[in-house]
Amino acid sequence: MLSSNVPPRILGVIPARYASSRFPGKALAPLAGKPVLQHVFERAGQARYVTRLIVATDDERIAEAARDFGAPVRMTRADHLSGTDRVAEVAATEDAGVVVNIQGDEPLIDPGAIDAAVLGLLEDPAVPMGTLKKRIEDPRELASHNVVKVVTDRFGNAIYFSRSLIPHQREPRVDGPVRHYKHIGLYVYRREFLLGYSQLPVGPLEQAERLEQLRALENGHKIRVVETDYESLGVDTPEDLERVASMLRRAGEHG
User: What is the H or E stretch that residue 196 is in?
Assistant: First the structure.
């Protein structure tokens, strides 16, 4: 039975583009006998708290493929600057209290991680936005600017996101090294906040880091960050696709 504080309608939107500088058409790339996008849709559909799931795209090739595997599709404008804007266009016409932005290039998305992010947001009515973090285990990720780090306060709200290593440990601690966390790019929004997000002023921190989520913090809004064991693995290159395919073969999910 669902908790009484869970809205009856939680919308999941999967924004998917065909264009990609490194891997055009990646959403439709075959993976274990299915398009990447179908893996995302089927796994996200297992999330307990998502009551409606829609693929949002501006490309008819993606729309046709999504309809073929049974996904509801919403055609959106082609001039959106981000996936967030594409999700907001869909949310504007849907009756939902909470909206989840699910990346269309993560075929191994964990439905439990989606639920955790939703519940984290719903814990506090004053929080308009939520996301996820995972403890960094690989030392190489600490130095990588492609791995976004996040620090949170003791209530689980984001203090800052950065491509640099945060926090910096100035000297050894008696209780061991400080823990570092990476940001997992799954977002949950209260619908009204999402609809106004693109109108928030872009600040110098977002411009410097090229991290859209800093817009919320720079404008004084909280972001609830829930810890997860989910290891995000997006398909950005053909090499990424082969890596995911190898993982599925080892897990026994063959095409």
Answer: helix 191-197
Is the pLDDT confidence value at 65 over 70? Answer: yes
Residue 76 and residue 57 in contact, taking contact as beta carbons nearer than 8 Å: yes
Q: Around Cβ 134, how many Cβ atoms within 10 Å? A: 18
| CA 176 and chain centroid, separation | 31
Q: How many helices (H) and strands (E) does the chain have?
A: 9, 11
Is residue 220 left, alpha or beta, with left meaning phi > 0 and alpha meaning psi from -120 to 50?
A: left
| pLDDT one-digit tens code per residue, 154-195 | 999 999 999 999 999 888 776 778 999 999 999 999 999 999
Q: Confirm if 134 and 232 have CB atoms less than 8 A apart.
A: yes
Retrieve residue 5's tokens.
């504080």
> Which residues on neighbouring strands pair with residue 189, listed in sequence order?
99, 129
Strand, coil or helix: what is 172?
A: coil
**Radius of gyration in angstroms for the set of CA atoms belonging to the chain, rounded to a whole number:** 18
* 207 φ, ψ (degrees, to nearest 5): -65, -40
Report d(CA 27, CA 7) in Å as an integer: 30
CA 248 to chain CA mean position, Å: 21
With H, G, I as helix, E, B as strand and everything else as coil, classify residue 31.
Answer: strand
